[in-house]
């Protein structure tokens, strides 16, 4: 306890900075490859269903390993864990850059994912250890820059690079940062998190992998294959059964791999629910907007990426400011204000047409990003503040896992809503429009109706998160809820 108190009085800023860089490049890498998938298809002569595994497989490995991160963080020192994770990520990046075949490229992505999966939970746990509750908002606000800016920068950077260079340049740019971070961590990184001699429950790892992996694969495949595909509903059913078994096993264990008892803390539970609901709603912007920009309006992939760039800058600038406001005023006012902005802007996105200007879309996206910066980190930090120090690894692992799963669910749900509405609109439009209207025009109009309806569903989901935000209460420095 005295070591922790001393650490919190003088946090290791230099060490945290290098952890930030490592986490940033690993998260950036998750979305960096999406725009380059068509180029990779051409070079290796693979089908869309195969090339999609470069993204889906990366997400699956993350979903399998993140739940186990609580065990790793408690069992191994933060130094050895970070060096191992960064070593894997660097090796995967180098292999991906040099890969002569698609199979080797896919293997390289899996190695990258194995390294990056531990980065976020480890960094969050170090932040919780290194900063006292009254200063965590500011610290986690800076952390928010990594969490939200990196994924938003990915498509923009990728679009520009793919337009001018080979897709291999995506890995060549990341590689020097990964190598420098790895070398620095070997020489400068110190151990600050406590370790416990806990045993690995292999069967829990198996159940967790099948459970979370099954859910992620099933929901991620639903958009392409359809809900009626046996592979989709089969993997979801298997995932649910394994996850229920896994949960019951953890609840009966005295030393669980992932502690589900942390949900007895009301603010942590509420923050988790709000994060899940909001993550589902957020995928409307990440998935539907590129379809609208590129397919319906005919803009380039670079333009689609540029839409997110100003919003990423706003989130980067605002995250530390919001962190300071959280330390001073708590999460409730910030969350209510931010979610109101998110609900209103998402509703405006549900009224897209063929005339709205590119700048107006950017402006809406930027304002929406401002709202998001006021919600996610304050809500998450407030929930984690209620947990005892020993449960921090479980809290960070649980948060990251739930975001992965809810993101996959959100993507599947909104793509399904869009497809169903597009089909019904196309049928209706075909029976009412004259022969002078081309099939392409009909399809675009039907797809626009589908996108707008999906954004409207997203608005309702975000509104649910707004209602829940009114029940948020600030957690004090003693970990107890402040009633007023």
UniProtKB/TrEMBL annotation:
Residues 15-477 form the Major facilitator superfamily (MFS) profile domain. PROSITE patterns: MFS. GO terms for cellular component: plasma membrane. It is a multi-pass membrane protein. It holds the Pfam family MFS_1. It is found in: Cell membrane. Gene3D superfamilies: MFS general substrate transporter like domains (1.20.1250.20), Multidrug resistance protein D (1.20.1720.10). SUPFAM superfamilies: MFS general substrate transporter. GO terms for molecular function: transmembrane transporter activity. Its main location: membrane. InterPro entries: EmrB-like (IPR004638), MFS (IPR011701), MFS_dom (IPR020846), MFS_trans_sf (IPR036259). The keyword Transmembrane applies. Keywords: Cell membrane, Membrane, Transmembrane, Transmembrane helix, Transport. The chain crosses the membrane at residues 12-33, 53-73, 80-98, 110-128, 140-161, 167-187, 199-219, 231-248, 268-293, 305-326, 333-352, 358-380, 401-418, 451-472. Belongs to the major facilitator superfamily. EmrB family. PANTHER family: MAJOR FACILITATOR SUPERFAMILY MULTIDRUG TRANSPORTER MFSC. This is MFS transporter. It comes from Oceanobacillus zhaokaii. The lineage of its organism: Bacteria, Bacillati, Bacillota, Bacilli, Bacillales.
């Amino acid at each position: 306890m005295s070591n922790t108190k001393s650490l919190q009085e003088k946090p290791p800023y230099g060490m945290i900075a290098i952890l930030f860089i490592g986490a940033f490049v690993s998260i950036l890498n998750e979305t960096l490859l999406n725009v380059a998938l068509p180029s990779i298809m051409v070079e290796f002569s693979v089908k869309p269903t195969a090339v999609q595994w470069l993204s889906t497989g990366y997400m699956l490995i993350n979903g399998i390993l993140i739940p186990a991160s609580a065990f790793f963080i408690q069992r191994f020192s933060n130094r050895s864990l970070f060096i191992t994770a960064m070593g894997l990520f660097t090796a995967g990046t180098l292999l991906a850059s040099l890969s002569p075949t698609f199979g080797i490229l896919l293997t390289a992505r899996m190695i990258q994912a194995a390294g990056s999966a531990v980065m976020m939970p480890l960094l969050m746990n170090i932040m919780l250890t290194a900063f006292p509750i009254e200063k965590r908002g500011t610290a986690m606000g800076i952390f928010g820059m990594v969490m939200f800016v990196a994924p938003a920068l990915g498509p923009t950077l990728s679009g520009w690079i793919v337009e001018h260079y080979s897709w291999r340049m995506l890995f060549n740019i990341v590689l020097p940062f990964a190598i420098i971070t790895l070398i620095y961590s070997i020489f400068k990184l110190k151990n600050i998190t406590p370790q416990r001699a806990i045993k690995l429950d292999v069967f829990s790892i198996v159940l967790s992998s099948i459970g979370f992996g099954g859910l992620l694969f099933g929901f991620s495949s639903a958009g392409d294959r359809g809900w009626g595909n046996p592979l989709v509903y089969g993997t979801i059913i298997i995932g649910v059964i394994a996850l229920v078994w896994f949960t019951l096993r953890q609840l009966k264990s005295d030393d669980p791999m992932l502690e589900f008892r942390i949900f007895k803390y009301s603010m942590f539970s509420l923050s988790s629910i709000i994060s899940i609901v909001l993550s589902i709603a957020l995928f409307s912007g990440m998935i539907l907007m590129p379809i609208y920009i590129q397919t319906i309006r005919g803009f380039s992939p670079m333009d689609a990426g540029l839409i997110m760039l100003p919003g990423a800058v706003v989130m980067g600038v605002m995250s530390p400011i919001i962190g300071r406001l959280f330390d001073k005023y708590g999460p409730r006012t910030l969350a209510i204000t931010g979610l109101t902005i998110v609900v209103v802007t998402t509703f405006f996105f549900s009224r897209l047409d063929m005339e709205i200007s590119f700048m107006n879309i950017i402006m809406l996206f930027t304002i929406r990003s401002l709202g998001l910066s006021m919600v996610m980190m304050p809500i998450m930090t407030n929930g984690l503040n209620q947990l005892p120090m020993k449960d921090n690894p479980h809290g960070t692992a649980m948060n990251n896992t739930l975001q992965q799963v809810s993101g996959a669910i959100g993507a599947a749900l909104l793509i399904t809503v869009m497809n169903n509405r597009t089909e019904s609109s196309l049928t209706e439009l075909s029976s009412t429009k004259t022969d002078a209207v081309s099939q392409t025009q009909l399809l675009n109009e039907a797809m626009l109706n589908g996108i707008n309806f999906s954004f409207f569903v997203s608005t309702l989901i975000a509104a649910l998160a707004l209602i829940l935000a009114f029940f948020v209460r600030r957690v004090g420095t003693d970990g107890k809820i402040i009633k007023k």
